[in-house]
Amino acid sequence: MEQIKYNLAFDFGASSGRVMLSKFDGKKIEIEEIHRFENEPVWLGKRYYWDFLRLFHELKIGLKKVAVMGIEIGSMGIDTWGVDYGLLDKNDNLLSNPIHYRDSRTENTLKKIEMTINFEEIYKITGIQNISFNTLYQLHSDFEIREDVIKLAKTLLFMPDLFSYYLTGQKYNEYTQASTSQMIDAEKKEWAFELIDKLGIPKSILQNIIYPGNIWGYLTSDVQKEVGLCSIPIVAVGSHDTASAVAGTPLESENSVFLSCGTWSLLGLESKSPIININSIKYNFTNEGGVCNTIRFMKNINGLWLIQELRKNWSEEVESVSFSNIIETVRKAKNKNYTINPNDEKFMNPMNMIKAIKEYCVENGQGNPESLGEIASAVYNGLTHEYKNVVDNLAEASGKTIDTINMVGGGIQDEYLCELTAKTTGKKVVAGPIEASVLGNIIVQLMALGEIDSLEKGREIIKNSFVQKVY
Question: What is the pTM (predicted TM-score) of this model?
Fold first, then answer.
């Protein structure tokens, strides 16, 4: 029997973070949660921030828990959500907590940017869908609301880059993460400096790009002393959590699409090269970087964050409910015909999700949903109808026939969502694994260390290690 290899994955989602331990015996992977913590953004004045200092503290708590286990860790990798960043001054001090992508500061930025360069020109270079919170738009808005911060900024690090820097002292911008910024040339997989110059963004703050599978650096001596570990390598993984999730998805065939279900729903297909054409522009598809020189041709859809917020508001205003309570009320609801557009601006960051859903249904002539089941039905119907539209549009834009949806992520624990997705889209749904982002993170580490020889082999190992359910 082969010696067990231990690796760590730090997986930061938009609502929680985990430190996960992987055990690989040469044939199968097992994972164990070592530390979990909330990722709760903070309103400060008029701005909405990520609490980076707390998140980094929690990361180190996880490392301390690993240290007392007395096992040899081969490597670690970090993945987070996309687009957001921290700025450092000339002395490498963090100038501000990173601003949350749901902050309102970019609401009118698209119109201002189009006075300089139109979206189609940007899209032909970057292949990135037009969403107000893209890094390009966030940076442009910083010149208005954080002019002093921008003047002092010497380094831009995306969220996983920021964690990696404070662990290793090494600065890079990881490719899959940078690709979400709308500042990478999709074909060349490098910074689109001509575009960046046109918009007046200081290119000097951008770092050299590091690609998945390379060693980022090693834990600094200070971190080693604090947490009780030795000099462990940090691997550049698919540091955008969707890049890791797709890497960890055992796709059925070339006719399969992936659907990563969590706070967001990320629906798309894996391609060897960017797909930039009339239909991809029309349907606002995005071409984001994946691991092993792949492209994620996909759509960002507001996801189960809608149900999370609904649960929070209902528990505050009416009675405490669990996610299983919500699903039960949906199954029993008398009227399941309400539906919302999950990508409507109304649902980006409402103060009250119950009120926002009710208002949308009334404004769109559907009447007023009253019960929890009726309100939640509007979300489920909205999500699954959008899944169907996106699958149809993916087929048109790519020229592929799509027969299977591989659903992964925490959202697949919601069997009602899986059932309704299969029913509404008319496609076979294969659900699993739940921890796709962690597993994708791990297999890239194992490839970097020479334990796995290809992405295909990694996916085969994942398929043999975890149960999948067909709907």
Answer: 0.92
